[in-house]
Amino acid sequence: INGHHQENGMENMMLFEVVKVGRSAMQSVVDEWIESYKHDRDVALLDLINFFIQCSGCKGVVTGEMFRNMQNSEIIRRMTEEFDEDSGDYPLTIAGPQWKKFKTSFCEFISVLVRQCQYSIIYDEYMMDTVISLLTGLSDSQVRAFRHTSTLAAMKLMTALVNVALNLSINMDNTQRQYEAERNKMVAKRANDRLELLLQKRKELQENQDEIENMMNAIFKGVFVHRYRDSIAEIRAICIEEIGVWMKLYSDAFLNDSYLKYVGWTMHDKQGEVRLKCLTALQGLYHNRELNARLELFTSRFKDRIVSMTLDKEYDVAVQAIKLLTLVLNSTDEVLTPEDCESVYHLVYSAHRPVAVAAGEFLYKKLFSQREPEEEGAPKRRGRQSPNANLIKTTVFFFLESELHEHAAYLVDSLWECGAELLKDWECMISLLLDDPMPGEEALTDRQETALIEIMLCTVRQAAECHPPVGRGTGKRVMTAKEKKTQLDDRTRITELFAVALPPLLAKYAVDAEKVTNLLQLPQYFDLEIYTTGRLEKHLEALLRQIKEIVEKHTDTEVLESCSKTYHALCNEEFTIFNRVDIARSQLLDELVDKFSRLLEDFLQEGEDADEDDAYQVLSTLKRITAFHNAHDLSGWDLFTSNFKLLNTGIENGDMPEQIVIHSLQCTHYVILWQLAKLSEGSSRKDDMVNLRKQMRAFCMMCQRYLTNVNTAVKEQAFTILCDLLLIFSHQMVSGGREHLEPLVYSPEDSLQSELLSFILNHVFIDQDDDTNSTDGQQDDEAVKIEALHKRRNLLAAYCKLIIYCVVEMRTGADIFKQYMRYYNDYGDIIKETMSKTRQIDKIQCAKTLILSLQQLFNEMLSELGHGFDRSSSAFCGIKELARRFSLTFGLDQVKTRDAIAMLHKDGIEFAFKEPSPQGEGGPPLNLAFLDILSEFSSKLMRQDKRTVHMYLERFMTFQMALQREDCWLPLISYRNSLQAGGDDDTMSVMSGYSSRGSSVRSKKVKPPADRACGGFLVPEESSSGDVWQQSIQTPVMLPSPHLTSTAMRDPKRGRDDSYMGVYTPQHHQTPMDYNRRGTGLMEEDEEPIVEDVMMSSEGRMDDLNEGMDFDTMDIDLPPSKNRRERSELKPDYFDPASIMDESVNF
């Protein structure tokens, strides 16, 4: 027996290795096994059994003696004992290239095995019985590897048997037709021998089909009905995937409510991958319109669940749910209600592109699939008479009704893949805007025209740029040659159409700022060469005239900036139209600057006598110049002198209109930036450098003076520009080979730093109700509040950049960091990122800044509450909580933060003992309670550093202090205890009262490698050379990952919340479902329970979960062929809770 065992082991190893490698033709492997089976079926079956055992990752081998003398349950128990669970991996889960194709090869082997045996061996009542019995036993094992592998094998075996049953059904129908044809012949021509042969063949096929039914029933009842609710999501997913295949392959037998109910129940599964398999299984069914009639009851029962899954928290599930609803929509329009459709419509604005594209396809099918039929032979209708005209109007109506007007780009992107032909019918859109409506046709309203222009612009941008809008991009994608050709063709067509149509469009809507702003963006996507090659110069002249007129008519900033960008796009030196556009631009700017100089001179001369009309003329001209200066170099006109004179007058008189000052500051800022840009190129003279240095410093002083202006908007503008200039002209500007710019470097004086910080504290860290920047009684308007918060966040970010780039001293960040908790919701992310960046620059200085912020808060609390404050007060607990948050930002790597943490403790100890006791000799120091706050950082000290810090603490303590036990000395006692906490508990957070939410984490310690260098850090100046911080360190190592354990060894309550995540619901909040509740109501929501503990007794489990319910797990009964006797009819409604399962079935 031993010899046979070894020989068999080698053969089995070869079978397993062949499937593992997956290179050999599987049919030849199976044919060799069949030959072996014909020679000695016991030996061959033993090979197959060991193959399944080995595919599960088990090292044990079933011997011939075990196979002959032991029951399957005993064999499985023996294999379980020999299973090596140390690694936690088995072939289906092992990563790596050699295992990549194992699952595919494994499934193919089972499929080919059944296919090759379908005519003889599977009916011998031995091979299939043995395999099914083994797989059924393994599928109920406590070991996940056995359960997973055997369930996959059983489901694939079932799928292969379904194929066999389908072939048998076809053969039986063919045989029956042949029999009927022969029997209907005249008696003289009838061949009785043939009739007998056909009858015999039909009988054999009938017997074979009954055998297959029995096998499938055994697998379905023995494996599927248990494992489709296994505790492991992968196993549940396998079951649902395969039942979908059965229903699709052999719909006559499986596509009925008795099997569909399992898919419907499992749509409530807590794991996304299982819900995904349900949807993909259903897609395969709804795709075939011939099956729709059989799905009517299922659709009506589970439609609401599918609709709710469009909001699933797993994006992949949401996408497939929308695609399934699109298939349902294709099959019938009556199933989905308007409310159902609307819940999908709004997803076209989703930030997740696959969800949006799927929703776009649904929307397109629903709203745009019905086109007007065109008469054959009739000329193709164009413009507003084209078939697309009504569809484009429908798009506009939908966009307006959705009330998300700023998201037209998202709507266009969602519809692009399915409706690009419609969206690129720009000729029709232009016609709808320019041509008069047909008789009886209703004209577009002003609001609809605005929406159509916005949609038209978005379609042009999508066609020209070929990438999704901001916020929906999936990373850079390399375009194919076909896509590049389409892009070029579209740009050519865009230019040819809009070069002609844009001037009349601008002329028609010249007074409408919103329409003009969108229309003026179109030339950015032109192929400018076509102006020359297409002989469209006259249209270019018309466009330039219209732009000039718009500049003269409008003072709206957005319109003027659009005009400026259009000139910038057209002024491209690569194209021949450059000279023509440049001349037009220069003429316009000459007029503007001359007008501004003349108006400004008169305005300043009039002084207090200037009226509102004069101020408006100056402001409107200044707005136009500022908008153009943003994109164009106006260095040829001396704008600095006139603007500086205007700003200086505003400071002296104090009555300059707010908007004039704001735009003058902005314009002067652009002047300096354009001069710097020219100097950076290295082509300017030394005089230009000196001139820029003078102008920049004079302008910075001017902005500093405006920080004290009475008008908030002016102060904010001056602050923002000042921060930008300080950052641009900091020491960073000489990097990258620009050393010649070093004379321009400007460092702010202490007074300026102080004023900037004061501005932040007074204008950013304020309560929402204190923000008086909102006007016209709109304090309660949510949009205004959000806009004000956004503005304050920008101000804070501008100042934090000065800290990060070392423009201002890092210690000024203490006033920012101390606001972390109080303003966490508004600015928490900005402050946290600032702390992170400053730590990267200088860990020690960052730590000193953090402790300084805590000291400032402590001093503020003392001044407010006095020295006898209560340590349980909200103010003290708030500081302590802030210290805890600061501590968490240092991370887990104690080696990296060693020096910084030590310096933090040093500064904290010195602060605590800095001030003497207000109670006189023998009393606690004034700031002693600060040690309680400092103890929050003790967990970040390494063990040997704790001893050193403790020694440093004792330098400040007297002998009497060590003996004190009164409440006022508790901070010292607590801090000393936190430093003396030894052993392995280095990461214990010492917290009490308000912040007692920490937990200890124990880590194993290992000695570092001998060649690893560990730098020490400086000690206080008073310490001697012998009192240096110890050099040896011990770093925590990660705990070993847990090994694989069987489900029987787990605590059934443990991990229930961690294993699953609640299904996302339309209400945007998760409600975890209790799958262990008793009583009625569970199945009312179609939630078939997913049983976590596979070792629960079958009857008890069913009683617990389905009390008071009838469950019907039906036998697999293949549909009758024409020659078979009628079978019992199915129950009419298998989703009625009273008829879901049969009590007679033992799970």
UniProtKB/TrEMBL annotation:
It is found in: Nucleus; Chromosome; Chromosome, Centromere. PROSITE patterns: SCD. The keyword Cell division applies. GO terms for cellular component: chromatin; chromosome, centromeric region; cohesin complex; nucleus. One of its GO terms (biological process) is cell division. It comes from the Eukaryota. Residues 224-309 form the SCD domain. Keywords: Cell cycle, Cell division, Chromosome, Chromosome partition, Coiled coil, Nucleus. The keyword Glycoprotein does not apply. GO terms for molecular function: chromatin binding. Part of the cohesin complex which is composed of a heterodimer between a SMC1 protein (SMC1A or SMC1B) and SMC3, which are attached via their hinge domain, and RAD21 which link them at their heads, and one STAG protein. Component of cohesin complex, a complex required for the cohesion of sister chromatids after DNA replication. The cohesin complex apparently forms a large proteinaceous ring within which sister chromatids can be trapped. At anaphase, the complex is cleaved and dissociates from chromatin, allowing sister chromatids to segregate. This is Cohesin subunit SA.
